[in-house]
Design a protein that fits this description.
This protein has 2 domains: 162 residues, 3-Layer(aba) Sandwich (Rossmann fold); 118 residues, N-(1-d-carboxylethyl)-l-norvaline Dehydrogenase, domain 2 (Orthogonal Bundle), CATH 1.10.1040.10. Helix content is 49%, strand content 13%. The chain has 13 helices and 10 strands. Strands 1, 2, 3, 4, 5, 6, 7, 8, 9 and 10 form a 10-stranded mixed sheet that branches.
């Protein structure tokens, strides 16, 4: 099997920067690019090599990872006028780690494969705090040989790694998981508000939910920063609107009467219009707080989430 040491990373946003840092931490030769060089300065100080454009990334790397904010940006980076497709060859493996549209992912993979290059999609899930420690989960799809080639890199980026089959499968599953997380977020806001109005201590309510059948990953993480008042999970309203919109697109494609999806899209668009594109996704709960003239606050919760688990070597989940 080909062993790759020279890795390129494109897109150093809130999550991408943390994923790139895990690669650097694991002693791979890392070169980086973002439209804003300032986002790369910390990585450069740790040994990453800055590249001025996508051509230089392709010339310096055998595996190229992208982690970008939208399908439109992915399209521009891959197939734009100066996109990666112009510079890659059969020696390259492109790993797409963004949350993107499955139809677009399939289309772009075909463009890459026409250049004899290889493709894997590998979106991550589990929150920025786990991305920072290399303990985030990864959903991967594409040809098995490409997954096997990517696994040494992916096992440094994440802990639980699931191979999902053909291209499009991982993108779809990631959208499904984000949809479920977003529903849970809305429901938790309503649940906590009922507790508040009833007069329950919200710290007691948090732990009551945590030990109950109503518990969830979202409750154990996002409820904490809601109760703190920072709302800071590092994920913004424009991104959650993109994700729930992609789920709704899939539901429409298969003619599924997904009424909850329609309602959720409406609520998050309302939140985006009121609080702005770059407001934090968890601030959707503020719609309810504003309406009820109540703050969902409790003492002793962190402003930001920190993964207290030690960094673990990633493994493929097999079943």
């Amino acid at each position: 099997m080909k062993m790759d040491k020279s890795i390129g990373f494109i897109g150093l946003g809130n999550v991408g920067k943390k994923l790139a840092n895990s690669i650097l931490y694991s002693n791979f030769d890392l070169c980086v690019y973002d439209i804003n060089k300032d986002k790369a300065l910390d990585l450069i100080s740790k040994g990453a090599k800055w590249k001025n454009n996508l051509k230089e990334i392709a010339e310096s790397s055998s595996i190229i990872l992208t982690c970008l904010p939208s399908p439109q940006v992915v399209n521009e980076v891959v197939s734009g006028h100066n996109g990666l497709v112009n510079y890659i060859s059969e020696n390259h493996l492109w790993i797409e780690m963004s949350t993107t549209d499955e139809k677009e992912m399939i289309r772009l993979s075909k463009l890459i494969e026409k250049k004899k290059a290889n493709v894997l999609e590998a979106p991550v899930t589990g929150g920025q705090h786990r991305a920072a420690t290399g303990n985030i989960a990864i959903l991967a799809a594409g040809k098995r040989k490409n997954f096997d080639r990517a696994l040494p890199i992916l096992s440094e980026i994440g802990y639980e790694i699931l191979y999902c089959g053909k291209i499009g499968n991982a993108s779809t599953l990631k959208i499904v998981t984000n949809y479920l997380a977003s529903i849970n977020l809305l429901a938790l806001g309503e649940a906590l508000m009922v507790c508040k109005k009833y007069g329950l201590d919200l710290k007691t309510a948090f732990y009551g939910i945590k030990i109950s059948s109503g518990n969830s990953f979202v409750h154990e993480t996002e409820s904490q920063v809601i109760l703190n008042g920072s709302y800071d999970v590092g994920f913004t309203m424009d991104l959650v609107c993109k994700d729930v919109g992609l789920f709704d697109k899939l539901a429409n494609k298969f003619k599924i009467p997904a009424d909850i999806s329609k309602l959720m899209n409406k609520k998050f668009k309302e939140g985006l219009n009121k609080y702005g594109d770059r407001s934090l996704s968890t601030s959707i709960v503020k719609l309810l707080e504003d309406y009820c003239n109540e703050n969902l606050r409790a003492y002793g919760f962190p402003r930001k989430l920190i993964d207290k688990e030690p960094r673990k070597k990633g493994n493929e989940i097999k079943f």
